[in-house]
Each structure stands twice: as structure tokens, then as C-alpha cells.
């Protein structure tokens, strides 16, 4: 389920809502998010770091409006709190925030590359009227630190949100509204499902890249030609081996169970190749390439206007927590491809309406049947 913000153009002049956004850890991701709101009318961005010199850098680079080393000062009266520190620190930050008098309705979110543990931890905390909503932008780089931050990092990328049954619809809606400035496509999914999918398409590739580089580096100890001759192929598949060691240590350890299974599958995949080679099975090897070409060449490109939603329906949903997540999960489990989701209306006294868009008529038909089976009103 996605909300496509690629065509978002803020209307001008924007009324000054005076929204305070606190960002803990203004590195690649925190800094790139900060740049999306920095200087927009009505937004005040406060960057936090435990390190005074980092705070000075955030401000002098113009990435945030203000900086502080005080967690309390950063969080005070914040409308949104973004935790952009390594995954291994997220729960500690939540514990600290739970001790503070936060603004009622404040949304605390994170950008961690794993979601299940932080979502479960937040669920067990009393956040004093604040709401936690897990998040993960599916964009990044092998670079790190605030110097690597860019305003267009998230443009046309997917931005995952992981609401639970307890998450108020209003919080999801407010977050989606704020994320429009990133021009990312918001997609809602379950945190455990997130970790198993992102483990496969992001964490496993990082492990493979690092393993491959280290294997070749060992060969290179006896002959420096390995390094000299490394061309496009080696560089393309290993760019991400230059990623930050601490950020990735935390991600991989956190998603250990998923990765151990994926590594078993990877080893089996390589064993199948070894067998094809032993048998000199050229046709079998070509077939593997044909299969891979088919999937690889169909990966969606990250450019404007790629997602065209042609088939749409509307679903009336009462405004209570968890409904979007439930519908998303059901559609996902039924393998129905949703290309866009938009919340048309959602107030306490008015039932919410979701607009769901699909690229395929067949997906629309299946979705209507499924959602009607869930006892929601669906119309066109
Ligand atoms: N790098 C990516 O491609 C990418 C993409 C999406 C999400 N993420 C997630 O974003 C988060 C931040 O990653 P990043 O790539 O921006 O890293 P980064 O190194 O660029 O930024 C990390 C920030 O956290 C701070 N920090 C580092 N260690 C800390 C500690 N022990 N305690 C408190 N603060 C600490 C740093 O000072 C920095 O401001 C991570 O949770 C990561 O999983 C990364
Ligand atoms: O482009 C890269 O360098 C990335 O590693 C980005 C990437 C990815 O694996 O695709 C890395 C970690 C994330 O949490 C999300 C995106």
C-alpha cells in the first residue's frame, strides 16, 4: 500500500503551523530528512547530538535551525521526534523519552533499518501521551554523516511506516502529511514482515558484498593486480561494502534470525551453481541468467511518474486504530499489488475514507472482494 508524493507541490503561501521537529542523530538519514523541512514556512528543526562539536556542525552547515546536546530540550514541545541513530541505540532513546513530559500527540518515529524490535519495545512503554510509529526510508548510501546528507535522497523512494493495531489513524495521517516534503512514496506494512523482506533485499546483499570484498582482498595480498583490474562488475556489486561498520553491525545483529535463514538459502543457491559448473551444464547456467535477467530488468526505476494508478476504489473506514495496517496486511498476504493509498478524510466525527489505487484491474477486483469480506463498504 503506498502514497505517492512524487508530484507534491506545496501550495504557497503555507500557513505557519509552527511545527517543531526534533531529530536525534543528524547523519546521512537524519540530515537528509532535516533538509526536506529546513526553511519551509512554519517548521522549526532542532538537531540533537550528545557531542557538542557535532551540534555545532549541524548548525553551521545549515541543516537544522537549532542544535542542542540536551535530550530534554530537543524533545520539549516537539510535534515530531525522529530517532536517526544506529538501530542498537533506538530502544535506549525511547526509554529516555518515556521519562520526559512530551507534548500530547507528539509522534515519535525512527528511521532504523529494522522494525520489529523497536516497534515491540515502544509498545511496552508508556510514552505519556506521545505515539510511536516506526519508519524506514528505503533510500540511503554507503556514505555516512551529516556531510553526506542531501535534500533529494528520498525522492521517489519508498518510505515504510509500520503502524500497529494501537496506532491512531490520525498519527499515520499526520506522518504521511509531513513526509510529503520528502517526495517519497509512503508504504504501510507490518514490522515483522518488513524485517524479513528488507533482510532479503538489503541486509543480505550487504553481507554478500562485504564477504566478496574480503575474499578478493585476501587474494590481493599475494598479487596487487586483483585491485588494479577490478572494474565495473566488481565495483557495482560491492559499492555497499563501504557502508558504515557501526550502523551495519547493529542492523545485522538485530535481524540475526532472518539473516541466518537467508544465508542458508544463499549457500544452497551457490551450491546449485557449483553443481552446474561441475556438470559443465551450460544450458543450466544460461537459464539462471535468463531467470535473473527477467526479475532484475523489472525492478521499478526510481524516477518521476513511474507509478501510474489506473484502477481505484474507495473504502469507508471508521476512525479507529489499526485499520490501515489490517487492510494492508490482508492485501499483502493475498499478494494483491497496491500502488497507492490516500486518506481522503479522517476526523473524529467523520468516518475515514481510503482511496486505493492499483495498476492492474485484476488486483482491484481481488481487493474489492477481499475488503468487502472484511465487512467494509467499498465503492468506485
Ligand atoms: N545508511 C543508509 O543507507 C540507511 C538507510 C535507511 C535507514 N538507515 C538507518 O538510519 C539510521 C542512521 O543511519 P545513517 O546512515 O544516517 O548513519 P550516520 O552515521 O550517517 O548517522 C548516524 C547518526 O547517529 C549518531 N550516532 C552514532 N552512534 C551513536 C551512538 N552510539 N549514540 C548516539 N548517537 C549516535 C551519529 O552522530 C550520527 O548523527 C540507522 O538506524 C540506519 O539503520 C540507514
Ligand atoms: O543505496 C545504498 O547504499 C543503501 O545501502 C541503501 C539501503 C539499501 O540497502 O538499499 C540501505 C539500508 C537501508 O536501510 C535502506 C536502503
Automatic annotation (TrEMBL):
Keywords: Amino-acid biosynthesis, Aromatic amino acid biosynthesis, Membrane, NAD, Oxidoreductase, Transmembrane, Transmembrane helix, Tyrosine biosynthesis
Domain ACT: 312-380
Domain Prephenate/arogenate dehydrogenase: 19-307
BP GO annotations: tyrosine biosynthetic process
Catalytic activity: prephenate + NAD(+) = 3-(4-hydroxyphenyl)pyruvate + CO2 + NADH
Residue stretches spanning the membrane: 20-37
Pathway: Amino-acid biosynthesis; L-tyrosine biosynthesis; (4-hydroxyphenyl)pyruvate from prephenate (NAD(+) route): step 1/1
Tagged with keyword Transmembrane helix: yes
InterPro entries, sorted: 6-PGluconate_DH-like_C_sf, ACT-like_dom_sf, ACT_dom, NAD(P)-bd_dom_sf, PDH_C, PDH_N, Preph/Arog_dehydrog, Prephen_DH
PROSITE patterns assigned: ACT, PDH_ADH
SUPFAM superfamilies documented for this protein: 6-phosphogluconate dehydrogenase C-terminal domain-like, ACT-like, NAD(P)-binding Rossmann-fold domains
Gene Ontology MF term list: NAD+ binding; prephenate dehydrogenase (NAD+) activity; prephenate dehydrogenase (NADP+) activity
EC numbers on record: 1.3.1.12
Similarity comment: family membership: Belongs to the prephenate/arogenate dehydrogenase family.
Protein name, UniProt field: Prephenate dehydrogenase
Organism: Cohnella thailandensis
Amino acid at each position: 500500500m503506498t502514497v505517492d508524493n512524487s508530484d507534491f507541490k506545496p501550495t504557497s503561501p503555507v500557513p505557519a503551523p509552527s511545527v517543531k521537529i526534533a531529530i536525534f542523530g543528524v547523519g546521512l538519514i537524519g540530515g537528509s530528512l532535516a533538509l526536506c523541512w529546513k526553511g519551509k514556512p512554519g517548521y522549526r528543526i532542532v538537531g540533537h547530538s550528545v557531542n557538542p562539536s557535532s551540534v555545532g556542525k549541524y548548525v553551521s552547515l545549515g541543516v537544522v535551525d537549532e542544535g542542542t546536546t540536551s535530550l530534554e530540550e530537543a524533545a520539549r514541545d516537539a510535534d515530531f521526534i525522529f530517532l536517526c541513530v544506529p538501530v542498537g541505540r533506538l530502544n535506549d532513546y525511547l526509554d529516555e523519552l518515556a521519562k520526559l513530559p512530551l507534548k500530547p500527540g507528539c509522534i515519535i518515529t525512527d528511521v532504523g533499518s529494522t522494525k520489529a524490535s523497536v516497534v515491540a519495545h515502544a509498545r511496552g512503554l508508556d510514552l505519556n501521551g506521545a505515539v510511536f510509529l516506526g519508519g524506514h526510508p528505503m533510500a540511503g548510501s554507503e556514505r555516512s554523516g551529516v556531510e553526506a546528507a542531501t535534500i533529494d535522497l528520498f525522492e521517489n523512494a519508498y518510505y515504510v511506516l509500520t503502524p500497529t493495531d494501537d496506532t491512531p489513524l490520525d498519527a499515520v495521517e499526520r506522518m504521511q502529511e509531513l513526509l510529503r516534503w520528502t517526495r517519497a512514496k509512503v508504504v504501510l506494512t507490518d514490522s515483522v514482515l518488513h524485517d524479513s523482506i528488507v533482510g532479503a533485499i538489503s541486509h543480505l546483499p550487504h553481507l554478500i558484498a562485504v564477504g566478496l570484498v574480503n575474499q578478493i582482498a585476501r587474494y590481493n595480498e599475494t598479487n596487487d593486480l586483483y585491485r588494479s583490474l577490478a572494474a565495473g562488475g566488481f565495483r557495482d556489486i560491492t559499492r555497499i561494502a563501504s557502508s558504515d561498520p557501526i550502523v551495519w553491525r547493529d542492523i545485522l545483529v538485530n535481524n540475526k534470525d532472518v539473516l541466518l535463514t537467508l544465508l542458508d538459502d544463499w549457500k544452497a543457491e551457490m551450491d546449485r551453481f557449483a553443481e552446474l559448473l561441475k556438470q559443465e551444464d551450460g544450458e543450466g547456467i544460461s537459464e539462471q541468467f535468463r531467470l535473473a535477467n527477467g526479475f532484475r530488468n523489472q525492478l521499478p526505476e526510481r524516477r518521476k511518474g513511474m507509478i501510474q494508478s489506473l484502477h481505484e476504489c474507495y473504502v469507508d473506514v471508521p476512525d479507529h486504530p489499526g485499520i490501515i495496517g489490517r487492510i494492508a496486511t490482508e492485501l499483502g498476504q493475498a499478494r494483491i499489488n497496491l500502488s497507492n493509498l490516500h486518506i481522503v478524510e479522517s476526523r473524529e466525527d467523520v468516518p475515514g475514507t481510503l482511496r486505493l489505487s492499483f495498476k492492474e484491474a485484476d488486483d482491484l477486483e481481488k481487493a474489492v472482494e477481499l475488503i468487502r469480506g472484511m465487512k467494509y463498504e467499498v465503492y468506485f
